Amino acid sequence: MTYIGVLALQGAFIEHIERLQECIKEYDNYDLDEDINIISVRTPEELEKCKALIIPGGESTSMSLIAQRTGFLPFLRDFVNDSSKAIWGTCAGLIFLSETVQGDGGGSGGSPLTAFDPTSRSNLVEPLNLVKVRVKRNAFGRQAQSFTKICDFSSFIPNCTDFPATFIRAPVIEEIIDADRVKTLYTLPNPSSATGELIVAAKQDDNVLVTAFHPELAENDIRFHDYFIREYVLKNL
Ligand code: GLN
C-alpha cells in the first residue's frame, strides 16, 4: 500500500484530496498494480506512513507558523529532504519548499500589501529549503488579480493542451539557483519585459514538482494529479 499525504495544516488541502481520490477511482477501472491510499497529514505519525506529500496552496506565512508552533516543522523538513519521497508544492506550497523567499508586492502588476509590513511578513516564512530556487511571493498582485488561464502542458503531460490553471496571489520562480537539479516545466510571458519569462512550474531531480498555480481547483480534471502520481510517486517506488 502506497500512502500519498496532503499536508492539512492550512489552505486548499481538501481539493487536492478530492482530485487524488478521483484519480484512484479512475485507476480502479484500469491498469494500476499499486494500491494507493490518500490521507490528510497533520502529525508526524501520519507523515511517517507516506511515500509522497503534497503541500497545498493557502498562506505560506500561516502554514510555516503553524508548523513551527506545533513542533511539526523539523519532521516536515526531514521528510521533504528525503530523496526517496515524492513531493509536490502548489502556490504557498512552492513558497514553503523553496530555498529563498522574496517579499510581497512589486513585479508585474503587483502592488504592496498595505495592511502589513511586507518585509517582516515574508521573513516569517521559514522555508523548508528543498527546492533550489528563489521565489517571489504575490508576483501577480492581489487576490482580486487572480486569474485562470488555459495552458498547454503537453511538453510534459501527454496530450494536455488545454489545462485550466488558476493563479491566486501566485508566486513566481525568479531564479533557479541550481540549474543541474531544477528544470523549468512551464513559463508565462513576462508582461514587464519583452524577452523575459515567468517560471510557474518546475521539477527538481526526479521526485519534486512545484507549481505556482492550483491544479486542484480544476474540478473533475485529474490530468495534473495523474501526472504527479505516475511520474513522481510511482516511478520512485
Ligand atoms: N500569496 C500566498 C502566500 O504568500 C500564496 C497564495 C496561494 O497559495 N494561493 O503564501
UniProtKB/TrEMBL annotation:
The keyword Hydrolase belongs to this UniProt entry's keyword annotation: yes
Assigned GO CC terms: cytosol; glutaminase complex
Residue numbers binding L-glutamine: 58-60, 137, 168-169
Keywords for the protein's UniProt record, in alphabetical order: Glutamine amidotransferase, Hydrolase, Lyase
Catalytic residues, chain numbering: 91 (nucleophile), 214 (charge relay system), 216 (charge relay system)
Entry keyword annotation includes Nucleus: no
Top-rank taxon: Eukaryota
GO MF annotation terms: glutaminase activity; lyase activity
Record EC number: 3.5.1.2
One biological process term in Gene Ontology: pyridoxine metabolic process
Catalytic activity: L-glutamine + H2O = L-glutamate + NH4(+)
Family, as annotated: Belongs to the glutaminase PdxT/SNO family.
Protein name: glutaminase
Organism: Vanderwaltozyma polyspora (strain ATCC 22028 / DSM 70294 / BCRC 21397 / CBS 2163 / NBRC 10782 / NRRL Y-8283 / UCD 57-17)
